[in-house]
What does this fold into?
Amino acid sequence: MAKTYTLPTSGTVSIPVDQSTAYPDIVHVENIATGTVTLVGPLAISPSGTPTTGQKVLVTWNASVTTTGVPITIFGETVPDQLSTKNFIAECIYTGVAWVVNILTDFVGTGIVTSRELANDAVSTAKVADDAITNAKLANITRGSIKVGGASDAPTDLDAKTSGQILVGDGTDVVSVPVSGDATLSSAGSLTILNDKITTAKILDANVTPIKLSASARKEMVAIPVSFETAGEIGVIKYTMCFDCTVDGIEATVTKPAATDTATIIFKDHGGSVLTGSQVDITTSLVLGNIVSTTPTGNNTFSAGEQITFETSKTTPGSGNCTVVLCLTRD
It folds into this structure.
């Protein structure tokens, strides 16, 4: 016949083990622990009296106990926290010196496996859930290192932190090497091409545009003679620009002085707007070789194929000839 014990929230539950004990403390081989409690202190199920060698006491755990971090012991053996709400049997056998306690449970049912139940190398790949090995479970590696496949395909730690170096495959391994040759790499990731390393072969055909040249290398000059000799040479003259450009300056060199009155040239863009500040006047005071200069400040950009217009005028034809030089910058 079994005896039932309702568990308290803390303290000691005594189970008689002395065969000579008089009634009512009858010794029961089978004992049942019951109750649903939350512990407020340690709970011990302990033998009471003097046992005999080879004596067996069974404690059937039918209780559900929330431990809150305090221990449960049965005849001196600590019950794992995971078992406090499960069913199990504690088999207690007296050896003549001490009690040996075997906790008998269905470990598959409880989901409890501790290190002492596991043999070395017993956890196979199939038993590890996918995406279950976190960084915290990995062995520490030196800061700035990464794991790569090493000799015999074994994982190995590669020092990848050297400043300004990159990881490169060499056909066998991944190695950390400095950038060399025509460029350098900083630890901030800034790649710098060394001086004098861009050769003609490295430039794609038709990819050096005028804007890539220095301002002085993009200068062009177009010289156009303008005559005021006859009325038929005075009026509107158009010239086509062969490339994208900006008219930076206009210079008119007197090749025949204006003997009677002023000869005037007004310059206009492709849409007919006057180049701001571009008018040239050849006055009667100018002599052979004198230069009249002006700097356009607006409406002075042209695309290839657009036309610049010279509008010439003079009250009395017959003199005031010049050569107009357009100072251009390729765009």
